[in-house]
Design goal:
The chain is of the alpha+beta class. The chain contains two helices and eleven strands; from the N terminus they run βββββββαββββα. Strands 4, 5, 6, 7, 8, 9, 10 and 11 form an eight-stranded mixed beta sheet that branches. A three-stranded antiparallel beta sheet has the order 1-2-3, with no helix packed on it. A hairpin with a 6-residue loop joins strand 4 and strand 5. It is elongated, with a radius of gyration of 22 Å. The model is unreliable at about 185-195 (pLDDT under 50).
């Protein structure tokens, strides 16, 4: 009969940030070096990107809007925007999104951003808690807000973007759910070919 030996699990140290030092700060972002302790109690550093000037009275930095366009005798569509993104030197298909203004709720920011970027007016269905979408790089937080758009209402039949000062012009793409995955697959393949050439 084999004897069993108990393998002790090493106790991990409490992890926490010791200090944060600003390396460079600009209008929208700052780069920090964060010193922290790892699970073994060893001191390490991490480069972190943070938003400069977090606004008062907001629950997160921004919102992303999953908007569903509903029209009689049509398939439901998800509304996407195509815009140029300098960090990747290319175009992205994205959900309408933007920053939450001071003392603005996530829901009202979502409806404002939807109308600014697409011209559509909608109704909030659901809003997530604040989510950190890239915690390995940034402390930036976002609410994901689900919105329905009544495409039969007069204000939504010929929507016009209401871009604020300095706002970027977007191509608005209502895409059926069936075609959404095809579109992303096609775009991914095109993007991969561009990277390889």
């Amino acid at each position: 009969m084999a004897t069993e030996t108990s393998a002790e699990v090493p106790k991990t140290a409490r992890q926490f940030v010791l200090k944060e030092e600003v390396i460079v700060e600009r209008k929208w972002l700052k780069l920090e070096e964060t010193t922290y302790t790892d699970p073994n109690g060893k001191t390490r550093t991490w480069e972190t990107v943070k938003r400069a000037g977090r606004k008062k009275g907001v629950s997160a930095d921004g919102v992303a809007v999953i908007a569903v366009l509903q029209r009689t005798l049509h398939y439901d569509c998800v509304v996407l925007v195509k815009q140029f993104r300098p960090p990747i030197n290319g175009y992205c298909l994205e959900f309408p999104a933007g920053l939450i203004e001071e003392n603005e709720t996530a829901e009202s920011a979502a409806l404002r951003e939807l109308e600014e970027e697409t011209g559509y007016k909608g109704e909030v269905v659901e809003c997530t808690p604040a989510l950190c979408l890239d915690p390995g790089l940034s402390n930036s937080t976002t609410h994901i807000v689900s919105v329905t758009i009544n495409g039969d209402e007069a204000e939504n039949t010929r929507p016009k973007q209401k871009l604020d000062d300095g706002g970027m012009l977007h191509n608005v793409l209502p895409v059926t759910f069936k075609n959404t995955w095809k579109l992303f697959h096609f775009r991914r393949m095109t993007y991969c070919k561009e990277l390889m050439s």
